[in-house]
Write a structure and sequence with these properties.
- The longest helix is centred in the last third of the chain and has 15 residues, at about 160-175.
- By secondary structure, the chain is α/β, with parallel strands linked by helices.
- The chain contains 7 helices and 7 strands.
Length: about 200
């Protein structure tokens, strides 16, 4: 894709559902990613009621980056993201949303700029709340159950040990391109991540 934006990423939002019942479910792959970033970069999440979520600030090569886990449920993710983005004056193109992706196998993660929500309720709400779809997405493969009627139970279920390990590997690979993301080098990040 040509003409990618070059604004550095200032906010990474991990999508998921709050609470222990959902913590290990496939739909929480976005939460897993920002948890990994916080752990590796010395950040600690704290609840911020004005942002309807848990917030963490990390520094990557001297650049500030906010991490957010909405504590609204998935289909209200936009409320949390829009309140934080507005408060810190963060533009759409400076946002990366990490989310589970049914159309890719576990072990695969892909960066994408813009596009539709493909039926993902978290993305749908963010597009609506932010009034646009020109933000970055980190699509974390969780695979598809093979039947559309089984999707809800599938995403709210836990991955097998094998799938969980594959997803962890994809998150690890995604964390390795974080410096490129916060410095606006998206083509480099995509080349590294998509060739793996």
């Amino acid at each position: 894709m040509t003409n990618l934006p070059t604004q550095p990423i200032r906010l990474i939002v991990g999508l998921g559902n709050p609470g222990a019942d959902y913590a290990a479910t496939r739909h929480n792959a976005g939460y897993w990613f920002v948890d990994l970033l916080a752990e590796r970069h010395g950040g600690v999440f704290r609840a911020e009621s004005k942002f309807h979520g848990q917030v963490c600030r990390i520094l990557v090569r001297g650049r500030e980056c906010w991490l957010l886990k909405p504590s609204t449920f998935m289909n209200r993710s936009g409320q949390s993201l829009s309140s934080l983005a507005k408060y810190y004056k963060i533009g759409l193109e400076e946002i990366l949303v990490a989310h589970d992706e049914l159309d890719m196998p576990p072990g695969v993660a892909r960066l994408k700029f813009g596009g539709g929500h493909a039926g993902h309720n978290g993305l749908r709400d963010i597009v609506s709340a932010m009034g646009g779809k020109d933000f970055w997405r980190l699509r974390i493969g969780i695979d598809h159950p093979g039947n559309a009627r089984e999707v809800v139970n599938y995403v709210l279920g836990r991955p097998s040990k094998q799938d969980a390990d594959a997803i962890a590997g994809a998150l690890d690979a995604s964390e390795r391109v974080l410096t490129d993301l916060v410095e606006g080098r998206f083509q480099l990040a995509m080349n590294a991540l998509h060739s793996g």
